[in-house]
Specification:
By secondary structure, the protein is an alpha/beta fold. 29% of the residues lie in helices and 21% in strands. It has two domains: 18-71 and 161-224, Ribulose 1,5 Bisphosphate Carboxylase/Oxygenase, CATH 3.30.190.20; 76-159, Rossmann fold.
Length: 228
Amino acid sequence: MKRNSKRYKEILKNKIKDKKISPIEALDLVKKNSTSKFDESIDVSLKINLKQSKGGDLSLRTVVNLPNGSGKKSKVAVLCETDKIDEAKKTGADVVGSDDLIEKIASGKIDFTKLICTPAMMSKIGKHGKVLGPKGLMPNPKLGTVTTDIKKAVKDIKTGLVEIRNDKDGNLASTIGRKSLPTEKLLENYNHFIESVKKEKPDTIKGEFIKNIFLTSTMGISYKVGAK
């Protein structure tokens, strides 16, 4: 039988049942519960309404640029033409390549967490979608990872761009920072994230788009969040 640790038992004392609290209250409690030795991620989880009045269920996939950064470290690769390799190396990308990078991807040597691709290279990388797709690494214009502005794309990912997508049940989740980030900055990230998701609501969905919101940390417990 699995036993809860002493640390977790202490956290459970701060649990709130069947009650929505404000974002600032939730963030204060989530940070209070972040008692592990590492810099825990502060995460938001949403339940959204997928049912459209016309057509099939909504599939939401987009990016949100958090104003105060996510605190998440990404290893960024850039796939570009050979004459742009030197330029790409100056952007702060961790991995840069052309046909040689495609060969590595084809052989399964993927040592990066995000892939940026120039439009000219998409025809070459497209056939490797079966390798990149399941890992969430396939470049996508909508997500800003297919672009001619390599410098901006790398900077966005490095500083606070987070990708979100819902599952078949309407759940989506994202980090909004780390416990080391001041509460007011986490709140600013939270508010920006929620407003960004609300803007994605299509006209074909009636009623509230966001059904439920929860805040938690990597090793903590979750809190149901209500209005500001």
